[in-house]
From TrEMBL:
GO molecular function: heme binding; iron ion binding; monooxygenase activity; oxidoreductase activity, acting on paired donors, with incorporation or reduction of molecular oxygen
Similarity comment: Belongs to the cytochrome P450 family.
Designated name of the protein: Cytochrome P450
Region (Disordered): 1-28
């Protein structure tokens, strides 16, 4: 892993709890537990009732931070980089963070576009934007259709499939590595995806820091390969961009691009398939009608957005937000899922799925760079429509209440989506 700022200290938090004056005082809520696994929306409502739109929370190891729950407040934070910036070296808790802290891949400073600010961020984001603009959306849809057909061929004859691992997870991975110029299907490519999953959404026994190091090493090899033999891909366009990014800068930014394209899109696909297969409103049109799939995709971004919470922003100076006193260096976690269901924007509790003003791709200078959301939509829509066209009588192989969510506070995705259908042999 790259230099993660002042994180090498051996200082540990005293056994008595968080230091005085930190936001943990005043009934801070641990950002963990079963409530996040199955019913996070209920937890967000409870936190909003008890703490308001900005709640004191505890991250792994009892580290204090703030969770921004309100739609207006998340929008304000992401629109005011001069107050809430992305460079995590500002954090006032580094003295208490061990180097093997599980959230280090999220917050340890790296020289990537994610942590840059001002003109440097505009320069780096501009390179990514132009590299992604070079992806032909019609060609991407054709790639995804071909990938989908290959994956479906692998299980269509059996009449049963676990769609999360064999389809929803695999398809955006193959599309992402193909866009970036990596060979699809190789063992090192599969290892890369596994390590990305661990670094973003570690399970019990996983080592997210070690996984991130392996991700970085594989992308370094890709950049070296494309430096010597460029092609019509995102990596090569970043290498030849007039901005002249260094190889190290490109490695870091490619990790961000691939991670954003793979895991969230996989969960978007799977969460949408779950909605289509469990909600009676879509039952009459489950064979893949374009309007129905589009509505389901958008509704999922409101109600089961793949990225639930994002860490984060760091206060540049003392300020106030949502009635809370925020100190310089405090960490703010963006509660994207909570903001999307804020009763202030949906006063009658009805989420308007036709509305696209959700915060699932964040907001402001650091939102997902255009045209990344459009490309993700192409991947997700093609994946779902192809599956439902090829296997139109797909139904769940278990009762809806038997489906379980991964125990993650950051990502919203099922552990598995077992389905059955009439066997088809091409």
């Amino acid at each position: 892993m790259t230099d993660a700022g002042p994180t090498g200290s051996d200082v540990r938090r005293p056994a008595g709890g968080p230091p005085p004056g930190c936001p943990a005082h005043g009934g801070a809520v641990p950002l963990s537990g079963l409530a996040y696994q199955q019913t996070p929306s209920e937890l967000y409502r409870s936190m909003r009732r008890e703490h308001g739109v900005v709640a004191p929370i505890l991250l792994d190891g009892g580290v204090p931070a703030w969770l921004v729950l309100g739609y207006a407040e998340v929008t304000y934070v992401t629109a005011h980089d001069e107050l809430f910036a992305r460079d995590s070296r500002r954090w006032n808790q580094w003295a208490d963070i061990p180097p093997d802290w599980p959230l280090m891949p999220f917050v340890g400073y790296q020289p990537s576009v994610l942590f840059t600010e001002g003109a440097e961020h505009q320069r780096r984001a501009g390179v990514i934007t132009q590299a992604l603009e070079g992806v032909d959306q019609f060609e991407l849809a054709q790639w995804c259709r071909s990938i989908a057909d290959q994956l479906i061929d692998g299980f269509a004859g059996s009449g049963r499939a676990e769609l999360m691992s064999s389809y929803a997870h695999a398809l955006p991975m193959r599309a992402a590595v193909q866009m970036c110029g990596m060979p699809a299907g190789g063992e090192d490519t599969e290892d890369l995806v596994t390590d990305l999953r661990i670094s973003l959404d570690a399970g019990e026994g996983d080592d997210p820091v070690a996984a991130y190091i392996r991700v970085q090493e594989r992308i370094q090899r890709l950049v070296r390969e494309k430096r010597s033999a460029p092609g019509p891909d995102v990596t090569s366009r970043m290498l030849t961009h007039p901005a002249g990014l260094t190889d190290d800068e490109i490695v870091q930014d490619l990790i961000s691009v691939i991670a954003a394209a793979q895991q969230p899109t996989a969960n978007w696909i799977c969460n949408t398939l779950r909605l289509l297969l469990t909600d009676d409103r879509f039952a009459l049109n489950v064979s893949g009608g374009r309007l129905s799939v589009g509505q389901a995709l958008n509704e999922v971004l409101w109600l089961d957005t793949p990225t639930q919470n994002f860490i984060g922003r760091w206060a540049v100076r003392d300020t106030q937000l949502g009635g809370r006193q925020i100190r310089a260096g405090d960490c703010l976690v963006l509660g994207l899922a909570a903001a999307n269901t804020d009763p202030q924007i949906w006063p009658e509790g009805h989420i308007g799925a036709e509305n696209s003003a959700h915060l699932s791709f964040s907001n402001g200078e650091h939102r997902c760079p255009y045209p990344a959301p459009l490309l993700a939509d192409v991947v997700a829509r093609t994946a779902i429509e192809t599956l439902l066209e090829r296997l139109p009588d797909t139904v769940l192989a278990v009762e809806p209440e038997e489906l379980t969510w991964r125990p993650s506070i950051w990502m919203r995705g099922l552990t598995a989506l077992p389905a059955r259908f009439t066997p088809v042999v091409r």
